[in-house]
Design brief:
With 596 residues, the chain is an alpha+beta fold. It folds into 4 domains: 2-44 and 51-86; 88-132; 185-288 and 566-593, 2-Layer Sandwich (Nucleotidyltransferase, domain 5), CATH 3.30.420; 312-537, Thrombin, subunit H (Beta Barrel). The chain has 13 helices and 20 strands. The strands form 4 sheets. The chain has a 6-stranded antiparallel β-barrel. Strands 13-14-15-18-17-16 form a 6-stranded antiparallel β-sheet. It has a 5-stranded mixed β-sheet with strand order 4-3-2-5-6. Strand 2 (198-205) and strand 3 (208-213) form a beta hairpin. Helix 2 packs antiparallel against helix 3 (51-86) and helix 6 (228-237) packs parallel to helix 7. The radius of gyration is 53 Å and the shape is elongated. The relative contact order is 0.11.
Amino acid sequence: MSRLRREGAPKLSFFAFQDIITSVSGILILVVLILATDLEKASTSSGRGSPEEIALEERLNALLLERNRVVEDLRRLRESQASANSAPSAAKLELDIAGLKQQIETASQQMADARQAIAAANAKIREQDLRLGLTQTREEIDSLRQKNDEMIRRDSAERAKLAEMERRVALAQSQLLRVRSREGQLWFIPEPSTDQREPILIVVGGSGITIEWFDKPESRLSYPSSSAAAEWLGYLKRLNKSQQFIVFLIRPSGIELFRRLRELARDAGFQTGYDAVEEGQKITFGRPPDESGGPPVPTPPETSGGNSGFPAETRPKAAPDGSSPRHPSSVVSGTGFFITEDGYLITNEHVAGMGANVRIRTAAGTMVARVLKADKLNDLALLKVEGKFPALALGESRNVKLGATVATVGFPNPDLQGFSPKLAKGEIGGLAGVRDDARHFQISAPIQPGNSGGALVDERGNVIGVVVATLNQKAAIATSGSLAQNVNYAVKGRLLLPLLEAVPDAVAKLKGATTRDRKFEDVVGDLERATVLVIVTPTPAPDVGSPGGNAPGGGPPTGKPSVNETPSPPNTPAGPASPPKENLSWWRRLLKALGF
């Protein structure tokens, strides 16, 4: 009530109070002026004020201070008056507050109504969903989404397992190929023994004898049957019976010669031993390659001129792709392609293996190439020449799909078709090679002798493989009675990486794969510029030894020989089956019956 009375009081009282203050201030100012005038007159007349004057001066100063305070109060009162005049009245403020409260109540009611409407709509939707079966459908969709997520996770895990299985399959296949390449061969392996003497290994046949040491192929000596006894007697004089002993391996045709040689060895005081071997058995004195790694055993000359690791039915009489066999007295040609701009290039190992004399023919002329690394198992070789050349980029062969378009440029039959590059285009006919060999693609691009080592590129010009072989038509006829049409093979590009990793300089200079679409003629142009003709000339055969001279120094591994025979099941495509073991047993029993 007091507040309302104050608000309802007339504003005239405030102005009257203001006028009173102004009048009082004016009177005080007038008194101060009069006193100041009197004081000034008094001071000028007497020079030093009396106590009354001093008291008057102090009073004057006090009045001045009071005057300043009154003026400041007046200023604040005026500001308060201006603020009060501009502020709305309390009634208006209460009216505004009441309006806002009404709006809030109205909005709250609308929100409550909306919530009720939404709840009613949801209930109606649920009822309709139940009537139409949509609720169950939504639940099924949610369940399918969860299953899909789970399947995606499982798919990722299965892909990882598949990649690991593919790696294991490739390893198992490579081991199988190594085993097949050793079928029909006989390996004599030195075993640890307390006997420190070195075995001298003598293979005796009707045509003569061969003298060998373990793991020392360069020490091999061969003598014909006509002079074998005399040469053997001279060889025994260079040996020491306290340091060596003699092991004879007797073929059926060499029984009589064996009698004379063993008598000479015994007469010289040497301890001897013997075993029987088949007439055509290939014998190796040393350790076979480790099946978990290392180069494969060379295939017999009658099955392949190269060493591609392909089963016999995929190997023509010459090389895997039907090109001329790499024979010591012939010149071999193939195809290669640059993978770096400073001269690293790829071809097949059966075209340019380690130790080969290699030249390449480019637009700049013919130049000598060095063979840096060779992978006999996968039939790949890395070469190097000096210069600046166009190069191809390596792609990802794991992403290649069945039916993808591929192309290669090479130099097929250069003596007949000429030395200009030739294009072959086709599709990926299979994601695996012979007997599902995961290392190879089957392609429909026409391949001829001389295409070996060429780059197989995709539609963007990335290398996804290396052309290596074509199916043997004779084997196809023998198996199915018909010719194979456009059944060719390429080593997958991913197998290049282990070869290149041995040469970090080459890996560091590889080009990045192309991801943009390109015109086919542009791809062919780049492929042609990066492809070269590879020419391999024969190398002189090393001298394996001659009669005379001392036994090799340093000595091979000591110990007694043991036989490690790899059986070959009949009718295997890797080559002719080995003779039955009964033949060898019969031959051993015969030697024993003859008194040996």
